[in-house]
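Hi L.,

You mentioned the student needs an example of a multi-chain input paired with its predicted structure. This one should do, with 863 residues in total across all chains.
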Amino acid sequence: MSITAETAKEHAKDPAVLCCRAEEGTVIQAANLEDPAIFDDLVDSGLLNLDGALTIEQVLGAKLTKTCDSLCPLTADVLEGIKEIEIPAPVKEEPKEEAPAIEELQAVVAPAVQNVPGGVLKIHIGEGKDIDIELPTGLGGGGAVVPALAPAKAEAAPTGIQEAEKPAEEKVVRSLTRKHYKITEVKRGPETKIEGTTLYIREGIEQECIDSQKLVLDLKIDVITPEQYHTYSETIMDVQPIACKEGESEVGSGVTRVLDGVIMMVTGTDANGVQIGEFGSSEGYLDENIMWSRPGAPEKGEIFIKTQVTVKEGTNMERPGPLAAHTATDHITQEIREVMKELDDSLVTDTETFDQVRRPGKKKVVIVKEIMGQGAMHDNLVLPVEPVGVLGAKPNVDLGNVPICVSPLEVLDGCIHALTCIGPASKEMSRHYWREPLVLEVLHDPDVDLCGVIFVGSPQINAEKFYVSKRVGMMVEMMDVDGAFVTTEGFGNNHIDFASHHEQIGMRGIPVVGMSFCAVQGALVVGNKYMTNMVDNNKSESGIENEVLACNTLCPEDAIRALAMLKNVMLGEDVAAAEKKWNPNVKSTNVELISNVTGKPVELVKNEQSLPMSQKRKEKYD
Amino acid sequence: MKLTTKEGMQSEIFVPVTPKPVFTELKKPLSECKVAFITAGGIHKKSQKPFNTSGDFSYRTIEFDTPSSELMVTHGGFDNSDINKDVNAMFPIDRLHELLKEGFIGSLPKETYTFMGGGGNVEKFRNETGPEIARKLKEQGVDVVLCTGGCGTCHRSATIVTRCCEEAGMSCCVIAALPPIARQQGAPRITAPHVPIGSNAGEPNNIPQQTAIVKESLEWVRDCPSFNATKVLPYEYRHNV
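Structure written out for the whole complex:
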């Protein structure tokens, strides 16, 4: 298929290949050329050899000296009138002491123009690279002509001089304090209570959990201590912190109380024994199926309060089934929360405070997190009254999956109760949000201004995917940000909206970095021209959904790369195009480049190879 | 501290482009055609081994005289409730028998093939499963192949197998709930009813809608002018999950 003049312009530096037969004497135009987008496949299959091919910008307007067939690469020996493409002359750099005040600036600044005697116009562009250009004005010291340098990025930033005079002040918008209470033992007893570091769960509470939900036929509680990690479990549907708000505090601010050393774990099947999981499931021995210490996973050494819920047959893959399993489990958690509210401050073992800091004048960025909203287990409860609770929360599906703005602290305070299960390895568990690495990394970086987090659901219907995505575009436009992250859990149909979010943000001229598990099995099913800065969350050895809990979720090492990549794009530093196939070395190189600049090594997490081999993994994957 | 860049970084995820065109023009009237229906939506006989929901490139053989009541779904990528109500929502086998009786199509092959395309291994589907299904359909003298996907990666697997059938000389159409995937992955022809994934061939138990979707997809196989063209079908079904 021939290309348009516009496409030719976009691909000016790409090889020129005839799309159809062209006669001797033809003057080459865009319409004679094939779309470079398909070359990779043709080269791979041996149908095309691009050796010696000229670029599109070189051949446009040149005359063919010989009749050539379709898919013939245009080389110098079949053309006359090839355009010589000039290499831009190197820009002369000035000694740095010329403009010391401006060099200190952190933000991208609009060109600062100085008229100095001698008829020289000095322009300083502080685009992070500090290039000084000298041009003769030719106007005898009169009015200087400022070349039309209009970097779009400079518009939002104040001019450099003003900023130098008045450094922008950080502002703490709100704070969240977490009080930690240590638990070393979990026992059953006549009432739910906490004594010292022992948590007691009321005997017989199971029946109330079962009775509270029509679709729950059975619920068992197992307390799993580290010695019992080699215990068989049904698929893990969620891992949750046990936390409550103190006094009048609301999720996202004030004080949160949280138990250390213990987590809630929801597991289950339907009455026919079918695992409540979608893309695979993590049933098996716990120690073989949990990727320890992932943001969403348990830490080694923690005690699990594990419910095994049985829902009515056939409802495991329909929305009410998994919701009932989660709600029944929350009956127990809620009773623990009530007890926690009464705890004495003397039991607090640690206190940490999170400040939501705004940094006016710094590059303003937003995090867009795509969460699932396709019914069945693909749902999330948004903004419960208690951290990761059920009460008061709205199901994302019922909200129509439209984008919702939350503060970074609401994310870290359990505003998402994750019902999703796209695949155990890439699901973001409720605990993931509690320790969300990208939110933490960006919030704590003094060089950027995180304005907020947008959650957007991924609907089941194609048209609705674009409906919600367009809202994301409008929302991000109104925020006047300099850059955006788009993250997603899972892979497959949600990549349609994931791609569309990139397009909606990118088409507004806003730099965007995408994060997803892709690698081999999750390879993108769609794409567009705005998806040029991407970070792969894969950790698995062979690039697959390996059914190991949280293996391929977003980790600090991914957040670091994404933030570095976004800074690059915001400052105009190139990010090279991805390789055609997943290659783990690309990640390693990116990590290395970052540690070379920062001088700090980036710690990489382990993958499933560090776990004891399960029978399932042996048979199916490794 | 100064905002710094790290030179030389590279994007880590490949963004796909549409592969080369495949297109086999239909040269006889639909009423004389042998029509097959394949699906990536995880349909199989209750007596058969369920698919592995985390990725499976095997396929199941379904005789076309199998009663729809003996079919079921094993698929992790979407809400199964519609197929649990009516398997024709993904694999409209009953509608095909009605169209045969009506004379709208010429015949059905003895058997067809189903698979679960979710999380599907692209290489395996492209080089093994796809060519094998195409060969088996071609050997039965099939002229037209319709295909439904299920979830997102299913649409990719569905499109890969459909392309294999088209390359083997049959005229094919993907009935897509997620047309952007079918289009980008290079489906020869696409019809797009407004349906959620999981009921790609129409609302469960809504026989007129399912019939219309199958009929108009067959007509699109006949009328589609060129590779990768999409026809939006005027049928809407919203699934209240």
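You could point out the following to them. Residues 92-123, 133-165 of chain A have pLDDT under 50 and may be disordered. Residues 5-80 of chain A form a domain with the Type Iii Antifreeze Protein Isoform Hplc 12 fold (CATH 3.90.1210.10).

Best wishes,
N.
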